[in-house]
UniProtKB/TrEMBL annotation:
This is Cell division protein ZapA. Gene3D superfamilies: 6.10.250.790. GO terms for biological process: division septum assembly; FtsZ-dependent cytokinesis; septin ring assembly. InterPro entries: Bac_CellDiv_Activator, Cell_div_ZapA-like, Cell_div_ZapA-like_sf, Cell_div_ZapA_firmicutes. Keywords: Cell cycle, Cell division, Coiled coil, Cytoplasm, Septation. Residues 64-91 form a coiled coil. Activator of cell division through the inhibition of FtsZ GTPase activity, therefore promoting FtsZ assembly into bundles of protofilaments necessary for the formation of the division Z ring. It is recruited early at mid-cell but it is not essential for cell division. Homodimer. Interacts with FtsZ.
């Protein structure tokens, strides 16, 4: 079993530098960090008194909420596709 090539990228999220190691491309890692940074800044603008820890937790909650909604929509669409394929098969 071969180990995937690891990529190390330094990113800036909400004014802090993080060194992230992963198997994705550096551009992917930077995109993820940028989305996290944007979401933190968006939440911070609406709640300027939040400390960084609470801001990070709220950001995680928001991102997971968005993920779950997208996954539910994906699952719904996949069921619809399966249903349409099954209906065509029966014709």
């Amino acid at each position: 079993m071969t180990e995937q090539q690891k990529t190390r990228v330094t990113v800036d999220i909400y004014g802090q530098q993080y060194s992230i190691v992963g198997t994705e491309s550096s551009s992917h890692i930077r995109l993820v960090a940028s989305i996290v940074d944007d979401k933190m800044r968006e939440i911070s603008a609406k709640n300027p008194t939040l400390d960084t820890s609470k801001l990070a937790v709220l950001t995680a909650v928001n991102v997971v909420h968005e993920y779950i909604k997208l996954k539910e929509e994906y699952d719904r669409l996949m069921q619809q596709i399966k249903k349409e394929k099954d209906e065509r098969k029966d014709d």
